[in-house]
Write a structure and sequence with these properties.
alpha+beta; two-stranded antiparallel sheet
Amino acid sequence: MPQIVPVSDFRSDIRSVSRYTDEGEVVVLTQNGRPRWAMVDYDEWNAAASSQERSVARALAEAEGLERSGDLSYVSEDEYERRRQARKDARSPKAAFRLTELADADLAGIEDWVEETRGADAADRVSDEVGARIREIAGHPLRFPVHKFDGDFGLMHEYRSANAGRFKVFYWVNESEGFV
């Protein structure tokens, strides 16, 4: 675990902070409460950088060897995108999402209003932001907080909410049927 040290403490007592790097620890210096710099022992950093460079050089040499032997194969841009998306999808299993007709009508109304007041490009941006948030929700439905409504409305479900630009998306998770 890195040692977190304000830069002002570092300036006032370099020796006490540098002992952490001497012991092989990473020191994260903060400025205005936010991480700004990382300090490590130079020999450790150099060894890690050299190891990384050797790894890259070995991979390039392997590719050149395949090229020389005529065994180097290529992947098209479309195939790369398909494979990349498949890897991405595998990392974030998605729940199916279902949009109610009422929600779809609300979204269409919002897009129409934005188009009338700010133009077609703005409406497209809102549509894209909301669509991206819905896809994110489907991928990680429990990421966003449960929304606490003021008052008792007799709702059947526990609703969550997520911001999408200036708008808020409300949804519920149906775990038994596997959809949002």
